[in-house]
């Protein structure tokens, strides 16, 4: 997973732009995921009855989960230069989603792609490009955790 110092700084700079407004941007990512991939709502019993994007945007549960997603990614971004610490955050998260929540691992690629789309829309292609390796690492390591968990 080695990131060069330049990659770490570039990725952190890109992430800081979107993380500044973690709750709204996290909410936007989830609303887009639930709208474009409605099957992803099936893991959230308290989101299932929400049909409109506006209703989801106003939901405290959606907003709270969006912020939790962004906070977890932020914790990982802070450890891009320390593989052990990065995996120390990512592996338990993957274990929980694989064994307790039983989220299909393809959904991590979906949410990462939506984060990259939002970065590009708000801050341009350079911002997206600076963060792509991070999302690839997250998805690769989560897939490994899922394989170890028997998926």
What features would you highlight for this structure?
7 helices; globular; 151 residues; mainly alpha; single chain; Globin-like
Can you tell me about this structure?
It catalyses: H2O2 + AH2 = A + 2 H2O; Fe(II)-heme b-[protein] + nitric oxide + O2 = Fe(III)-heme b-[protein] + nitrate; 2 superoxide + 2 H(+) = H2O2 + O2; Fe(III)-heme b-[protein] + nitric oxide + H2O = Fe(II)-heme b-[protein] + nitrite + 2 H(+). The protein is mainly alpha-helical. It has one domain: Globins (Globin-like, Orthogonal Bundle). It has 7 helices and no strands. α1 (5-19) packs antiparallel against α4, α4 (60-77) packs antiparallel against α5 (83-101) and α5 crosses α7. It is globular and about 45 Å long.
Short description:
This protein has helices spanning 5-19, 22-36, 53-58, 60-77, 83-101, 106-123, 125-148.
Rg over alpha carbons = 15 Å
**What series of H and E elements makes up the topology?**
HHHHHHH
Tell me the distance between the termini.
22 Å
Structural class: mainly alpha
Q: Classify the beta-strand content into a percent band.
A: under 5%
CATH class: Mainly Alpha
Tell me the CATH architecture.
Answer: Orthogonal Bundle
Task: Report the biggest beta sheet as strand number plus sense, adding barrel if it closes.
Answer: none
- The percent of residues in helical segments reads over 70%
The H-level CATH homologous superfamily, spelled out, is Globins
Tally of distinct domains: 1
